[in-house]
Amino acid sequence: MDAAFTEEQDEIRRTLRALLDKRCGPDEVRAAVRTPTGYDEALWRQLAEQLGLPGLALPAAYGGAGCGPTELALACEETGRAVLPAPLIGTAVLAAPLILALGGERRRAELLPALAAGQSTAALVVPGGRLGTALALTGPNDGDWAGGGRAGGIQARWSQEHGGGAPGRSPGAPRAGGGWRLYGEAEQVLGGHAADVLVVAAHAGGFARSRTLLFTVRAKGPDGAEAPGLLRTRQTAMDETRPQARIELRDVAAELLGEDPSGGDGATDAVAAALAATGATAAACLAAEAVGAADAALSRTVGYVKERTQFGRPIGSFQAVQHRLADLYVAVQAARSAAYYAAWAAGGGRAVPEPGAGALALAQALEALRAVAAEAVQLHGGIGFTWEHAAHLYFKRAACDELLLGPVHRLRARAAEQAGLFVSGGGADAGALVGPAVRAAVGA
Where would you find the membrane-spanning parts of this chain (predicted)? Predict the structure, then answer.
């Protein structure tokens, strides 16, 4: 692994930081989260037009920049520093890679150029708060996590009202002229209240042919009206910079995301593989974002303790305060190294993919952010306990990020399971299955 960044990667980081320093201070963040969309649309368009941020990891053929997970993670680190409220994670990290992996040429050409240009946004809809499981970060995604086939979650069925049977149709294949319809609901959908395109995980086939598939739903028509049968409600969240929504689907028209129109077993395997690959990248990007937030919070705290005086001297001169800050610095740097490694591994840096690298990096970064945010509140003293202080932007992000793809102990448990850390019998075979990221995380 070459730990040095290229000139292009450094330029992405410098340019994005300079723009966000000018346009995304704490006051601007608070103003943006109170808009109907939950983010500054003008700033989002600027990030798309000048920096190509939404399409950073998309191929040039679809209007993207042709970069990879490492560049996307570096961008997320900078947006994390500013606690930027934007549809970056929902669009560029979660939804767009799934459309690219499964959509086929027609669907890619229809959806990806607008996403890459910032003209539309997307969201991944996973029912039951099972996003971590769907992305194979907190558990295997080979089960009925999208609904179970009988009740709950989101169900998909092929509508017989939209077309007749096709001669020679195999059992379970779509009827000619028909269409998929979705029923059910999902909560805590990241950016789902304002997204133009929804990538929906739904259960199909009932009990007999149980399988989980992905569908795309055009949430808004050309006139801006909501799709028939779709009801979206923005939910109240502790971290307002991560707006979430409740999605209700009542006989909503959808299109299967995949090459196999019947949604057979091959489609199921492809969906699981695409979600797992997306999960590896998402974990690295969210880890980098948490590192950026932790680094910014630590810098603000260091600056404050240099200025705040107590007993006639700056509180930063007290050895106890210095020790606390030194521990935080080490935690942030370790989390940054893990996030960079996870992004490099997700981009194909290793000839043999290392299971659990993203999950471990995310767990370490979340813990670092939580520790830094808590100390930031404490070391800012009385002013740090007021909701209006900037320290609480990081504190709320730390508190809510773990609920998005965590918790931390499940991320680590899943990584250990994938790496074979607790293989029965132990010995050399078990140790050979444990990659360097796992060994570093457990101190082996």
Answer: none
Instruction: Please choose, from the candidates 217, 211, 218, the residue with its C-alpha nearest in 3D space to the C-alpha of residue 263.
Output: 211
Between CA 207 and CA 244 the distance in angstroms is 31
CATH number of 7-116: 1.10.540.10
Taking residue 208's Cβ as centre, other Cβ atoms within 10 Å add up to 8
Strand partners, 155: 183, 203
CA nearest to 401, candidates 35, 89, 91, 74: 89
CA 183, CA 252: separation in Å to the nearest integer?
7
Closest to 135 measured CA to CA, from 332, 342, 283 = 283
DSSP line for 386-443: STTSTHHHHHHHHHHHHHHH--HHHHHHHHHHHHTTT-TT-HHHHHHTS-HHHHHHHT
Alpha helix positions (H), 312-356: 319-346
To the nearest 10 degrees (0 to 180), the angle between helices 69-81 and 319-346 is 150
C-alpha 79/C-alpha 77 separation (Å) is: 6
- For the stretch 40-94, pLDDT in tens is 999 999 999 999 999 999 999 999 999 999 999 999 999 999 999 999 999 999 9
The pLDDT of 99-125, averaged and rounded, is 95
Residues 109 and 129: their CA atoms lie apart, in Å, by 30
- The domain 270-442 is placed in CATH, from the list 1.10.443.10, 1.20.1250.20, 1.20.140.10, 1.10.10.10, at 1.20.140.10
